[in-house]
Amino acid sequence: MANRENRAEILKTGRKVIAIEARAVSAMARSLDNSFADAALALLECKGNAVVMGIGKSGLIGRKIAATMSSTGTPAVFAHPVECLHGDLGLLGKRDIAIALSYSGETEEIIKLIPVIKGLGIKIISLTGRKNSTLAKMSDIVIDTNVKAEACPLNSAPTASTTAMLAAGDALAIALMKLKHFGKDDFAKLHPGGALGRILTLRVKDIMQTGTANPVISEAKTVKDALFVMTETRTGAVSVVNKKGRLTGFFTDGNLRRELQKNPNLLGLKISEVMTVNPVTVSPGTMAAKAADILREKRIDNMPVIDEKGKPVGLLDERVLIVSIPVSDDED
Questions:
Q1: Are the C-beta atoms of residues 35 and 144 closer than 8 Å to each other?
Q2: Model confidence over 294-309: pLDDT tens digits?
């Protein structure tokens, strides 16, 4: 019984923390003002890097913000304030913009850095929960990340405040994506080694089945002929062509099962009598992700790949797509 009560209390705590943090982010979304737009526009015009800095939990959030910006088209790096005070300040240049994170706005190491950064002529954007803090007063643009309370029962451990700060950073990164018209191709170039990059760059021609794995028969052949070809190639489908080699239909094992229920003499019929006329097709240059969307939308397992002359040059199978475009939990 005690264990059951403990579980209930644990769930209650977990839900309460998530609810507090959700309310904090929601409140910040409503209070967001032109300072956010000013920050995004300043970063858009920046010719150098967005240099993000913070101490402790804010520093961890800063690293994530820098990584998100870098992966979405806004060059960004994280600079540790303490290291900057001991030589690393050299990584900042006049073309950069500094993004300082401090909920209190009174973090000693950052406050020491700000005059030096301003002396270099570098614009400063701050994310802080105290609009009247020293950091806010020294910044060119201030994004208010204030929260009513932390999720911590002592109201001490940074929880809701860091969540709000992270959300503000993500919002800046995505706003910049839209301003820069940063698209799928751009994203793929920055993620060449991950599953997302593969999804966004792979084309049908890269994964379609060809040769003997792309069975084709004449529309003059019988269903029995089609069944033989399908069994031999283990594809479960066959493209049907006319005398000029152009696609006129498509026949699958699903067609076979449905038609057999209607006509026990099916095997002797011409394939042209039972094939799917004007089937869904795709071209070799189509993006694999788009082809996957078509298969899902049409609720089909495979489809012919045709060239500009309407001739079947390949077969796209759902199973190949699943292998080629995996659901990944990698760093992307």
A1: yes
A2: 988 998 888 999 999 9
Q: What is the pLDDT of residue 192?
A: 59
Q: What would the two tokens of residue 57 be? A: 């939990």
Give the integer Cα–Cα distance in Å for 44 and 75. Answer: 10
At 290, which amino acid appears?
Answer: K
Element (H, E) at 290: helix 288-298
Q: Write the DSSP symbol of residue 47.
A: S
CA max distance for the chain: 89
Apex 97 CA angle, 134 and 112, nearest 5: 35
Distances in Å between the Cα of 183 and the Cα atoms of 61, 107, 186, 189 are 25, 37, 5, 10
- Distance between CA 166 and CA 157 in Å, rounded? 15
CA–CA gap between residue 59 and residue 267 (Å, rounded): 70
Model pLDDT, residue 16: 95
Q: Which architecture characterizes domain 204-324 according to CATH?
A: Roll (3.10)
pTM: 0.66
Q: Are 239 and 281 in contact (CB under 8 A)?
A: no
Q: For the chain, give every domain's residue range.
A: 2-182, 204-324
User: Domain 2-182 is in which class?
Assistant: alpha beta
User: How many CA atoms lie within 13 Å of 111's alpha carbon, on the beta-carbon side?
Assistant: 12
